[in-house]
Design a protein that fits this description.
about 80% helix; about 450 residues; about 0% strand; mainly alpha
């Protein structure tokens, strides 16, 4: 039977060794770095090359919208993967599912790098790209949530916010590797060769990276909290039904808390790369460099915000981080609109750094909303539903900019997303599970 949502854990989690905590957090970080490397390769390629390789049109806006629609399809698949892998993670364990999801992500990414383009096989090319994107989205639907959960459940309660921020660093690392891979190939082979075949190399490189991730993740042990549930026979037999029936408020608030870190990021990266190259006629290299430097700055922002969450509570960091992002939205887009290389890069760096503040503690916030027996399901559904909305952000922004011939729709979307995330920080404490020693 599904249990009714409660604001208190039924029992204290088993004691953990912090040396084990650090190893588990590192393994989670390596896995999420590969996850986001693979996923960000797709988002950057959607802005740079997929519109020409797989969606042929004389109108650059039509080609870009086809490319971004494929990007969005992967996000639509994510909550389905969240339902599937989340429920399995609450039934058979966190580690087993994390091995499956990372395998799916890495293999699909390698196959995208080998996929013939529209000029070679015609309509089959975009169709196969969409199919691979769906499979990738399904796997991603269970990956991030599982990685954050296993890091949290292996951490001392009073330090869970800190360790929950570590897997988030996988996002900028993935960005650095993907943008750095594209930037490096562009520099080495030139624009013509990059457009023809150079873009494929970073995708194919996912295969050896997958082997490393599997080796590291294979050494993980199961979460002590979940192992205790398994031993006592208290695992949830119907986690999806239980979460949807009893925790819908947690899902809604959790979605809003995660929205800025996901949707805002894609707005400042994927959409800005497209807008900068196709509308402002800025060079690819400049925007890739902006994305790369923004990711470097993001690592520091995530570490700092994780410590602030541990000190003051995740909800306060989400509230003030959302407010700060709303305040810088217009200046960021004005800097990009200026076409001045230094201001463009600075705008991207500031935008990503500020929206990363609530993202740093979103893992701690989401895992605090759900009891252990339904945590994987709850976090997966919540984060991936936010991901669905986020996946359409570049598409919506592109359509509005095409209609208005102005950057203002992008800034307005960032303000709306930031305000929704800030508001979630107000409601999070009342809906979260109370655990002694952890500030909410």
């Amino acid at each position: 039977m599904a249990t009714k949502a409660s604001t208190h854990q039924p029992s204290a989690p088993p004691p953990v060794s912090e040396s084990v905590t650090r190893k588990v957090a590192l393994a989670a970080l390596v896995g999420t770095a590969l996850e986001w490397y693979d996923f960000f390769l797709f988002t950057t390629a959607a802005a740079l090359v997929f519109n020409a390789q797989f969606f042929v049109s004389h109108d650059p806006f039509i080609a870009a919208m086809g490319s971004f629609a494929t990007l969005a399809v992967g996000f639509v698949a994510r909550p389905i993967g969240g339902f599937i892998f989340g429920a399995l993670g609450d039934k058979v364990g966190r580690k087993k599912i994390l091995m499956v999801t990372i395998m799916g992500i890495g293999v699909v990414t390698g196959l995208i790098g080998l996929l013939p383009n529209y000029m070679t096989i015609g309509l089959a090319a975009p169709v196969l790209l969409v199919v691979l994107r769906i499979v990738q989205g399904l796997a991603v639907g269970g990956e991030w949530s599982g990685a954050v959960i296993i890091a949290v459940e292996n951490a001392p309660i009073e330090k869970r916010t800190r360790y929950a921020a570590l897997p988030q660093i996988g996002s900028p690392i993935g960005t650095i590797l993907s943008s750095g891979g594209f930037f490096g190939m562009l520099y080495l082979v030139g624009q013509g060769n990059f457009d023809a075949w150079g873009w494929r190399i970073p995708f194919i490189a996912a295969i050896p990276l997958l082997a490393i991730s599997l080796w590291i993740r294979g050494k993980l042990s199961e979460s002590p909290e979940f192992a205790a549930l398994m031993e006592s026979g208290e695992t949830e037999h119907a986690p999806i039904r239980g979460v949807l029936k009893n925790s819908w408020r947690q899902i809604l608030v959790g979605m809003c808390s995660a929205l800025l870190g996901i949707g805002g990021f894609y707005l400042i990266t994927s959409f800005v790369v497209f807008y900068g190259t196709k509308v402002l006629h800025l060079p690819y290299g400049l925007l890739l460099m902006g994305t790369l430097l923004a990711a470097v700055l993001e690592i520091g922002a995530l570490v700092w915000a994780g410590r602030m969450g541990e000190k003051f509570g995740a909800s306060k960091v989400i509230l003030w981080g959302g407010i700060a992002s709303a305040l810088v939205a217009v200046p960021v887009f004005l800097a990009i609109e200026s076409r001045n290389p230094l201001l463009v890069v600075a705008g991207m760096m500031v935008g990503v750094a500020v929206l990363s503040v609530p993202y740093a503690v979103s893992g701690a916030a989401l895992t605090s909303l759900f009891a252990t027996k339904v945590r994987y399901t709850g976090v997966a559904i919540t984060s991936n539903t936010a991901g669905v909305i986020s996946g359409f952000v570049p598409l919506i922004a592109t359509a509005l900019v095409a209609a208005s011939s102005s950057f203002w729709p992008g800034a307005a979307i960032l303000v709306v997303i930031s305000v929704l995330t800030a508001l979630s920080g107000i409601f999070l404490p009342a809906l979260s599970i109370k655990q002694e020693g952890m500030k909410l």
